[in-house]
Prior knowledge:
Elements lengths: L25 H38 L5 H47 L13 H51 L6 H29 L7 E3 L1 H19 L2 E6 L6 E3 L1 H17 L6 E9 L2 E8 L6 H5 L17 H11 L3 E6 L5 E8 L1
Parallel strand pairs: 2-4
Antiparallel strand pairs: 1-3, 4-5, 5-7, 6-7
Helix pairs in contact: 1-2, 2-3, 3-4, 4-8, 5-6, 6-8
Amino acid sequence: MRRHAGFGRARPPWWPENEPWPPPGRMHARRRRFFRRAAAGAVVVIAFSVYGAFSLASMIAAAAGLITPSTRALGSLLFVAAVLGAAVAAALVIALARRVAQPIGAVMDAADRVAGGDYAARVAERGPSPVRGLARSFNAMAERLQSHDRIRRDLMADVAHELRTPLTVMQGKLEGLIDGLYPPDERQLGQVLDQTHVLSRLVDDLRMLALTESGGLKLEKEATDIVELARGVLRAFDPDATTHGVTLRLECVGDVPPVVVDPVRVREVLGNLLSNAVRHTPAGGSVEIRIGTADQAVSIEVRDTGQGMSADELAHAFERFYKGAGSHGSGLGLTIARSLVRAHGGSMTALSEPGRGTTMKFVLPG
């Protein structure tokens, strides 16, 4: 018994319990019967159409006196010619149907495989132009499904990895407290509490990421002065920057009009970028927020004089759970920041070179 494409040897949940699985050749046999019946139906329709047209023409000609006994023989010859023409037309219809049916059948087989979870299924682009377009669209759909499935699997693995570290620390600490290896003092309990904060931030980040990427995030938009918003973010980070010996600056290029955004979400974006910049800038360096306008949009840049990123780090900067050298976060900050900007209809890019700092730029429509 051959293996049915798509589900392999596993019985699908919707398959009747009293029927064997896999069904040998069942789906293909049904399709062959369908296409054979369609071709036979087309032949019968053409034959009856030709016969009916010839009969109608003969009746009209006889009623008008155009057909005489001397022309009946010619009429018979014309009828035979019409029948032969119908046979040729039927043969052409069968050939055309076969040319169309085979690639469509291939798409149907591949669709069964995709329905069974085989997202690697692809079909050759052949046949008439509309059928090739169908195959092309199917391949694009299957490729997107395969990509989404791979991202889902990677995300589950990454989440499990990120959750494992704080849970392992908490488990070790609690077991040590129970066994008497650690004293139940404020220091030990504080370390456990710190790990719960790590878990809480990770859960919040995952929830935010899911909302932004699914389109379920509700934005509370209002006319916002981006310059004043940036000043507020700088003031909030000033103590941290002072501790690290980093200078914060704000530069505004020209008149920046108010822009309709969700100020809370934009503040989160700026806070994330500024936190990364301060953390990766050595003492004596500086971080600058530069705000300007271009093409009826507001551009915000966060520039630092830190260590910068290599080409490989820059290529993966916005990927989920990617952590560059010296990063201690969840690896979701930049991913969430870009998703929030995209939710506003904007875009975010990064420029960096090792030893020459990093510039994170995002643009919000005006």
